[in-house]
Design brief:
With about 230 residues, this protein is α+β, with helices and mostly antiparallel strands. It is built from seven helices and seven strands; from the N terminus they run αββββαβαααββαα.
Amino acid sequence: MDVYKTLREEAFEANMEIKRNNLAICTWGNSSAYDPDKGIFAIKPSGVEYEKLTPKMMVLVDLEGNIVEGKLKPSSDTNTHIVLYRGFSVMGITHTHSTYAVSWAQAKKGVPVFGTTHADYGVQEIPCTDYMSIEAVKNNYELETGSLIVETFKKRKIDPDIINMVLVAGHGPFTWGKSAAESVFNSAVLEEICKMALFSLAINPLTRPLPEHIIKKHWERKHGENAYYGQKE
């Protein structure tokens, strides 16, 4: 019996969604799916084109970085995923190099809440980290990338359950969620928010963040105790 079949399939489908949503060209992205009961996650193999991927190619890794199952090398970002799984209570993580999100990361700018689209998915600015230090890059780049994200959220008192996306300065976006599929969805949302924000500033460089009472309204109608957006289960 293949006890990891579902986990590998979940990771595979998430990686396929990266491609379907045009969030990465070539091999510029990866997604993983985590099973907290087993302490194992499945992740895309390094450098393999999306068109060639199969569920069986997904690599199973534990939170110590040991390969549990798989013939291929896991994503080069595996250690970043490990740190995020350890630091946040999440079940899926996605990293891409999508154009608009990377543009904000390269500008080393967080994305303000300019409109209700952003407010539907977050009540505050999408954070951008500081640049990594020379020592961190020399130590273990991918592991330190994860540590930088976790420390940024702790230092700025940001709740990763509410703000489930981040821009790593000079690098690109990471998103997470309650499943691998949700983490990719959040990557797609982030890309659109970054695109809209850039266009807003291009039209009016003096664009200011949305008033707090409108941000609150849009967040609470989808996520608050009395949320009324969507259908009841």
